[in-house]
Amino acid sequence: MQFTSIYTNQPINTDDYLACFVDEYTGEVKEDRRVLEKRVRKLWFRSTMPKAVIHSDVKLSCQQLNAETPPEPSALAYVQILDESGAVLAENWSLRKAITAGSETPFEYYTEAAVNSAVDRCLIDLGFVVPEELEKSPVPAQPSQQQQAIADIEALIDSEGGKERPQPSVPSYDKTTPVDEIMKTMDAATARTIVFENGKYKGQTVGAVYESTKDNNGFSGKLKWFADNYRTNNILVAACIIVNKS
Q1: pTM for the full model?
Q2: Helices (DSSP H) in the chain: which residue ranges?
Q3: 9 φ/ψ angles, rounded to the nearest 5 degrees
Q4: CA distance 74 to 64
Q5: Coil, strand or helix: which one is 29?
Q6: How far apart are CA 88 and CA 168, in angstroms?
Q7: What angle, rounded to 10 degrees, do the helices at 221-229 and 206-213 form?
Q8: pLDDT (tens digit, 9 = 90+) per residue, 20-73?
């Protein structure tokens, strides 16, 4: 299958970007299954639907299953793909833990991994799949460990204060929107969930970076530096300003 890249105007053959399926929970490599690389699937989507918008909302939690085990940080990402009018085309969830099964080493980019996985699932729901991915797809007889974890977190969110969980709002801005315009609609809670896409803090949220770098007066010099110097993502700049002032 081929598509033309929106960025280079060159044909891309998806057969060149197939890899062995790796179970994201156990790490098991399954040689008999092939999957398309996430970055190529996303490029395919961007090239086919350039006006569509990807909206993500991340909720961080730190649950302790019992008194004998340490708390387990995790990120639950909810992603919507919207058309240019704001109508929802696809939506999906993904959960990632900071410590993966069988490993005691924290996974630094678990927040980014949750978002990327949820985006990939949305794109699959929209039909951005290749025939090889549809072969030998096992159907679980019961809910997976991740599905059960998501259900548990959703129940926890829904029960907080007896309030109904609000639906994610549709953003009226993108990375190129002027910072002052973004700040008119972005609230502090949303600003704290914005994720750094590269550099030292790649995969971490603005809120997490603020908490780890703020001084005794509640001011983060790191966020100020990003607000003053970052030029490729105005959403991140606005979020840094808002969190530093909140």
Answers
A1: 0.51
A2: 38-48, 110-125, 145-159, 179-185, 188-193, 206-213, 221-229, 234-245
A3: 60, 25
A4: 11
A5: strand
A6: 11
A7: 130
A8: 877 665 667 777 788 899 999 999 999 999 999 999 888 877 665 556 666 677
